[in-house]
Amino acid sequence: xxxxxxxxxxxxxxxxxxxxxxxxxxxxxxxxxxxxxxxxxxxxxxxxxxxxxxxxxxxxxxxxxxxxxxxxxxxxxxxxxxxxxxxxxxxxxxxxxxxxxxxxxxxxxxxxxxxxxxxxxxxxxxxxxxxxxxxxxxxxxxxxxxxxxxxxxxxxxxxxxxxxxxxxxxxxxxxxxxxxxxxxxxxxxxxxxxxxxxxxxxxxxxxxxxxxxxxxxxxxxxx
Length: 223
What we know:
This protein folds into two domains: about 1-145, Jelly Rolls (Sandwich); about 155-220, Arc Repressor Mutant, subunit A (Orthogonal Bundle), CATH 1.10.10. It is built from eight helices and eleven strands. By secondary structure, the chain is an alpha+beta fold. Strand 10 and strand 11 form a beta hairpin. Helix 5 (about 125-150) runs antiparallel to helix 6.
């Protein structure tokens, strides 16, 4: 497991935990690593919500498909990020989303009960792990609230600009790259792709923004 320490040090789940403690903790948690190919399903909707994942390399997307087959991207999962922790902590019977690999990736999977219930040794670093998990959940709640604010906008134009302005704010720059292609951005915003492309073209012609694939530059605030 030590070959993964560089990326695990960046994982907020292990903040404040030394390498020596992390080595012991991973044994305590019974952590295992699995490899997945591009487009492979890491966790399927309906599976028991008993595992917490950590992306060690590559990336994935958390998607949700409604009754009519409409696809919505809930969020992306990048290296060092944790996923499915909220479902495990809520003790829901089944995972309500599907996690699909964007590219070849390695994932660390941990049985959630090993995290939520301290071992008999009552390790101090295990208590730190639980505290970090609570902070991670709070951060994810804010992120999902932001997406709700975006998708609750009335028009495709308003949804798109709300998303782009949030990205610019988070990056601290009017120039930024988003983690989605056009279809994925449409799925994230929960809009039609053709309508999205049309709005991007209009905003570009109006001098509000410029873009090249998934790179955007906001030129003025008014839109």
